[in-house]
Design brief:
It is a single chain. By secondary structure, the chain is of the alpha+beta class. Helices cover 44% and strands 16% of the residues. It has twelve helices and eleven strands. A six-stranded antiparallel sheet has the order 1-2-4-7-6-3, sandwiched between helices. It is globular.
């Protein structure tokens, strides 16, 4: 992995924040060589440009520092994501066509919109990083956020214990409750259907699938999910690697909102559990884990309906119906992700017994319904 941050990226960061960049550390390059994610320390004592901020022109679409710049300027440790699409497309599994490229480019714009417009509506119970500023130059985008590691979220993981997985399930429950049935927030700047694997943007992978019951029912499975009465914002890439934790794993925050959009909350739940736990753990603790999520979802929804400051079009009578609908759709969420994996990478380790078990339930139920 390249450990040196591109000097052009550093210069862009300094210009966008009107600050001197005193230190940088690469976190990782972006998927398929689309840019870089790195940490930086900022010094605001020697501004680089006028206090009015960067000037807009036809080549640059800049979002200057927030109006509350005094508060954001107290954040000197930041995480920066710069997406600069390559001239020549590359993908480790060969999926480097125009549709894939278009999806990735749009995902970076979606993430910038989420952090600048939607993130302020989140709460401490679904903690996310504060946006410092964002910028766009032609097809390249820059996003500057607070470094959550400097606020106690110092740990990341590739797998979790069952107890730690419940921490993330509670985060998901509060995030989903916060935005449930709030269609206007998504508008045209977020994905109208969240997650990176939904069928409408994965036609190439669908056609690569061998003939099977899963392929035959792919459209019906997708329609069950997209046709649900109760929809919310889903994270869209809620794997364990996209959460950071406090030292005792009792609290977490989420990162990487490139595929945030509308959907049913159990799409995040199904994807997360498959990324964090072994097959045996999922099988043995399935009911407890799902019970944790739905109990926290009920609590969060009741809290939301009682709030005076957050507009809510839900009532207490909706809550039981929401939970019943999403419980019913869990197997379809698993089957939908399985469909993507079978076409994208048929030998992927996530295609395991629990995922197939839930897929079989979904297909059987479609058959029973005629």
């Amino acid at each position: 992995m390249e450990n040196t941050v591109n000097q052009a990226f550093i210069d862009w960061l300094g210009e966008a924040c009107n600050a001197r960049v005193v230190d940088t550390k690469m976190i990782q390059p972006l998927w398929s060589s689309y840019g870089a994610c790195f940490r930086a320390e900022l010094d605001y004592s020697t501004p680089l440009i006028s206090k009015k901020g960067p000037r807009l022109n036809s080549q640059t679409d800049v979002a200057p520092m927030h109006d509350d710049a005094l508060s954001t300027k107290s954040i000197t440790h930041v995480v920066v994501k710069i997406a600069s699409p390559p001239v020549r497309l590359a993908h480790p599994k060969g999926w480097n066509g125009q549709q894939s490229d278009k999806r990735k480019r749009h995902s970076f714009r979606v993430e910038n919109h989420f952090y600048s417009e939607v993130q302020p509506l989140t709460t401490e119970k679904c903690r996310t990083a504060t946006c410092i500023t964002h910028d766009r130059k032609r097809e390249a985008t820059l996003l500057v956020m607070e470094d959550l590691a400097h606020n106690g979220y110092t740990h990341t993981a590739q797998s979790l214990t069952v107890a730690s997985a419940k921490t993330v399930l509670k985060w998901l429950a509060h995030f989903h409750a916060r935005f449930l049935n709030k269609v206007h927030i998504t508008d045209s700047n977020l994905w109208q259907e969240g997650t990176y694997w939904h069928l409408s943007t994965r036609e190439d992978e669908y056609h690569a699938m061998p003939d099977s019951l899963l392929k035959q029912h792919a459209g019906a499975i997708s329609n069950r999910l997209s046709g649900a009465r109760y929809q919310t914002l889903v994270h869209g890439d809620a794997k364990v690697a996209n959460f950071c934790f406090t030292a005792n794993f009792s609290s977490c925050a989420a990162v990487d909102f490139q595929y945030v959009g509308y959907g049913v909350g159990v799409k995040d739940v199904a994807y997360f559990l498959g990324s964090a736990l072994t097959t045996k753990e999922q099988q043995e603790h399935r009911q407890t884990l799902l019970g944790t999520y739905f109990a926290e979802l009920e609590t969060a929804l009741r809290d939301r309906t009682s709030e005076k400051t957050h507009q809510c079009d839900l009532t207490g009578n909706d809550i039981a119906q929401i939970i019943a609908e999403w419980k019913d759709l869990y197997c379809f969420a698993c089957a939908d992700f399985n469909r993507f994996l079978v076409g994208w990478s048929p030998d992927h380790w996530k295609i395991e017994e629990e995922l197939q078990y839930q897929t079989d339930i979904a297909i059987a139920r479609l058959g029973d319904s005629g």
